Amino acid sequence: MLDCLLTKLDIDRILTLNYDFEVELAIAQDPGAKGSTVAKLNRAGIRQDDPATHKIVLRMPGGRSLVSDVFLRERTDRLIEFAVGSAEHEYHVMHLHGRADRHETMVVSYRDYDRLYRRSGTSKVPFEHALGLLYSGNPVLFVGIGMSESEINQSLQDVVGDHPYRRVMPTFLLWNADMTLSEEARKADKAIKRIDMLHRLGVLTLFDDDLARHAGVDLLEGETTERLARSIDNLAAAMARRGDEHAKPISHWRSLSLRVPQHADGKIIAAWALIAAPSLPAPAALITPFREENALLTVVAATSGLRKGAAARCFANRFQEDHPLATVVHINADFCFDTDTMLNLIAEVLWRRRGHRGPRHMSRSRQFAEDLAFCLPDNSDLVVVISGTERMFGNGGEPLSAEFDEAMRCFAASCCRHARSRHAHARFVILGTLRVKQYFCGLFGEVGTIASDGRPPVVIIDYGPLVASSGQSNAGDAARRFRKHHYLEVEMGVRATEAMTPIAIRRVDLKAGPDVAIADYRRAHFAANLTPTALRSLGLDPDLALDILMVMAFVGQPVEAEVLLHVPRLRTRLADPIFGVTKEVERLERIGKELRLLSGCGLVLPVAPSIDPTHMPRFGIHATLLAELRDRSGVPLSEAALSAAFNMSLYAAQPTDGPVPEPHLHDELGHMIDWLIGAYNDPSPISDERPSEPEHHRPDALAALRAALAVIRGFYSTSALLSIESDRSTWLGERDGALTEHGERLDRLLEAFLRSQRAVERRGDTTGFGAFYPDEIVWLYNERGVVKLAQGDLYEARAAFDEADRFNRTYVEFGDRALNWRRITLNQIVVDIERGRFSSRATGST
Known about the structure:
single chain, alpha/beta
């Protein structure tokens, strides 16, 4: 049995109540040696005995070492070292009740026990702290314990069972099922045992027959010791199989390569593009300077609200019409909060245009840094048009996204190298506000790129005068056209109606001055137009419409009606008898109808379907309305906070007074995430039947997982969770802490992803699509590690960071030391420093 624990489960720290050296000899692989105990140990290795602590150190072949300790009340530091793990020794054995070679340490009576554990004094508090650290900081497996010793049970009740649901690390008990009972009676007996052990002692019970079933073997009857050894074997087999499933190569990623045809000539590759872009002033006003200047980079700058997103769509269409062989990549970054996805699409197009047919085998950073990364093998055009880039820069033009900044710096360096080259070069058109213009002017000013005719290859176009000269605006005069607030009435489509009260009209009028901040006018505008009366006049159901808008603001990215159907807030709303819907199909139709009405009002925008074969319609909430609704909830979207949360050291530098969800909103978001993760258990929105088995491969279930990830990345930075943690004791009661809840949701999201992957593989579906992109899985595992590190769970933190590193090396950066590698490695170094392992691989690699 000891061999199974040491070799099969790879356990290297053992607490024992025995006095003998059987554990040490089993580790030294000499359990059958004859002679005295001292002789056995001397043969096993070099025996070094510390008389002060009764510590024995054995140096074994291969450089490994074993330390055998005896618990002494005056040396609580030895128990603390055992609890956190020694950095100097591979194996550690702690004899709690003494050891046979030191008779004075042996606990043989209640008086000895009271002297060691219960006596008051200066060492009592350190001992209780060390015991709490041992149980709460490590996963514990009880083996060969009858759980009838009152002393052990009392310690578990005091340290573990006090708050079993708040503990970070679980405690397990390996127990044999009563095989004399019938299957039904045995099932009930095990349920009672589990409940009793959990609520009384905080221990999770594992039964040997369950382990046998999970390991795929038959449970053979026999002596208790034999069954216990086989149970450990079965547990090891189940763990190994689970490890194999996690390490198994992923074959159904959500892939961007399907957007890019092998021969992309004459194509518009659009991402997050609107289905029906509004009509725009003549795009020739943008195309003419772009064509005449022959610039490698064109920056179109204007204030918010002049419909630059629509201009980008019109520019892409017009340019492709004038150049039938050109490839145009149009990215609407207003609906893409994940910078990695946007840049991966650009990298994929460049990879294909350079003649590569297979998947990329290098990281995006390395590809962009190559000498000819942005050069084309022929003379055809490749134009990348990106709108909605404001969120990637600060007010002064400073970059907030390290990934986008790296890509643009590589592009600027390529422009410098190939300004006079005969190679055709990819060109970029970036539409944004003044902050975007400041960034690119500073970037190309630093690089000092000069075109062949002496002119800089950067063209700055002021979009405002172009719109004014076109005369194609809905406003009555030029002054009103260029007020910052005007786009609310033109672009949004929601206008002041007769249903507005005089007070509301007055508020809008007062806020309409050109010198008023856009946020002030936005609040006044929506305060007047998102009232029940105003929404009802537009044919909407006010309560349902506002609920849909708020949920879409929570998600922050384009979402399908099938996903909204799984959200608790909307399910509760649709359960109202006034809607008269009871079936899932009817609920879906009702949500779809409301979305179409909201689209007609300009409050939500239909977005081109994603690359999934089902082509479920998607809708994105207008950016202005999203900002308004998230401001109302008290948690505006912060791209800087999200990027900093990816790294533990950067997270620690974040301000602690940032926006934090109110308790009721925090609970609603958590409930919403839980339902989205478990969407595969809900009735299908098409068949209206609850599945007998979970359907992890359903398209709506995969889309719900993407929405759950969007909510997690949009609201739950670690600093915000710690802010909640410090103040939530007044309203949480007996619930888990905020970080614990967040960590559990990350685990469920990862588990749901792996289950969906296995479900697609079992079906043999070669056209299916995974729920996440590879870089999103890297983010999830790294975020899980950051949460565990913040909780002090160093072992789980290191395991999560290692898994993030494995996925990153296998699927994202392919061994290159790019941005993800730097972030993950820095996190690994922090863990190793906390564990005292200064000579670890991660520390040495820097």
